[in-house]
Amino acid sequence: MTSEPARVPVDATTTNAWGSLTELSKNLDPDLRGWFAADPERAARLSHQAGDLHVDLSKNLVTDDVLAALLALAEEVGLAEHRDAMFAGRHINVTEDRAVLHTALRRPSDEPFTVDGQDVTADVADELAKVYAFAEQVRSGEWTGVTGEAVRTIVNIGIGGSDLGPVMAYEALEPYVQDGLEVRFVSNIDPTDVAQKTADLDPTTTLFIVASKTFGTLETLTNARLARDWLWRSLVAAGAIEDSEDGRADAVAKHFVAVSTALDKVEAFGIDPANAFGFWDWVGGRYSVDSAIGTSLAVAIGPDAFADFLAGFHAMDEHFRTTPFEQNVPALMGLLNVWYVNFRDAHTHAVLPYAQQLHRFPAYLQQLTMESNGKSVRWDGTPVTSETGEVFWGEPGTNGQHAFYQLIHQGTRLIPADFIAVANPAYPLADAVGDGGAVAAGADVHGLFLANFFAQTKALAFGKTADEVRAEGVAEDLVSAKVFSGNRPTTSILAPALTPSVLGQLVALYEHITFVQGVVWGIDSFDQWGVELGKKLALEIAPAVAGDEAALAAQDPSTAALIAKYRELRA
Ligand code: F6P
């Protein structure tokens, strides 16, 4: 039996553990050099395996006492009970009165699981079977457009969770994409996005997937209409359809499918519900890449690889669900983030993949983490009692090294950073040509790449003292500029290769890290009311932008002046 989460969140700041952490932080003099010297086992003790991920936490600014206090905090806020409540389908999304069951999307299909009277396992399996059947039809060329041509380009139209997950995973798993298929992603309501993505496309071989949980999102519906107009116009121009209602309906039937929880709205848009894939309100948008929202990905990489992707998520779910918190990687990483935000005054957190294919991973994580934990009230409506959601950001290494690492190494802010790499590249490239200096002839380029990962985490942890700088013969007036303080915390994550399963494990890892932080802070990590006001105001302001003087006069002076300026500048 699992228990319900407490209706009133525990105020973490009143716990004994919070008091201990405050004291420990006050007295902590971070000394990674000293800590490693005193404890040769530190790296081994603080490294853990979660599925295929080797995670080294040893370069974090924690002592055993700090870790013990963080684990005590987890106990006092009821982390295990909350985790179990999530997995059991309790309505932990309190403000929307919903279960939070993205973990059910990747459960084995032979394990029955009923929530709120719904056979979730069967529902998930049925919908997945539909997605897979569609994927096979497109991949085999059985699905054809109005002229009988097979699909060569899929354009996914969605935004937020209906875009960031699929595009991140598509880029990450590009080596698994079937030859001759390409997926493009349109998200921004800036009409340039549709225009650029369709500019060189052949409409007869293009299929649009309109992905929207609510099917009410302004950007997505606007872009879907723009895409539909483009399709009609270009098919008519190519002589592929009659310029008639029937011709247009045929075009939509063969070139548009949808993914949504609102199948009635899909039909109202003109897409046959038979060509729509559903999911459920218990899947949050930013937790939905493993639902039918991943249809574009499933088509691109195929059902087998997609199933492997889901299996990876499940492996991490099981790790989080069953591993004692002492070795539980998502729990430990979430608690470390709390440590940095609440006790070490960290405002941001860098995620630095040393894998070019993960170049969209930080962007994906920004929605996952910040839409989830950017909250000022707790799930019972009372104000939070501590700082919450830090800013997540990042770029792939080594590019970031030549841009913003300076600030991480020598700036005044503490920026915890996660370094992520895979041991085996997808594209084994030719050996480096030796430059006769640092790069030996025949050097493995991937090894050279990862040498940067290891060098950066080492430099951040251990720095360079003034004496070491002097020993290099540096003039005294330059010594201080060349000193690296060290004690800049990093977590290193290494996987064998960027397989679909490993990607699923990585995503699930961060989903659960986000959850752990939310539980400590007592916030509902699954709603996103903060995005509503701007959406509403945009609709109210649109008439003013379009020339309605009364609507313009109703705006505040700054907004009215900006709109007037825009109207003046607009040719
Ligand atoms: O930005 C708010 C939001 O609701 C996100 O949570 C969501 O991922 C995105 O908009 C898109 O929503 P939908 O899938 O319903 O179009």
TrEMBL record:
Catalyzes the reversible isomerization of glucose-6-phosphate to fructose-6-phosphate. The keyword Zinc does not apply. It catalyses: alpha-D-glucose 6-phosphate = beta-D-fructose 6-phosphate. One of its GO terms (molecular function) is glucose-6-phosphate isomerase activity. SUPFAM superfamilies: SIS domain (SSF53697). Pathway: Carbohydrate degradation; glycolysis; D-glyceraldehyde 3-phosphate and glycerone phosphate from D-glucose: step 2/4; Carbohydrate biosynthesis; gluconeogenesis. Keywords: Cytoplasm, Gluconeogenesis, Glycolysis, Isomerase. Its main location: cytoplasm. NCBIfam families: PRK00179.1 (NF001211). The active site is at 371 (proton donor), 402, 535. The gene is pgi. This is Glucose-6-phosphate isomerase. Its EC number is 5.3.1.9. It is found in: Cytoplasm.
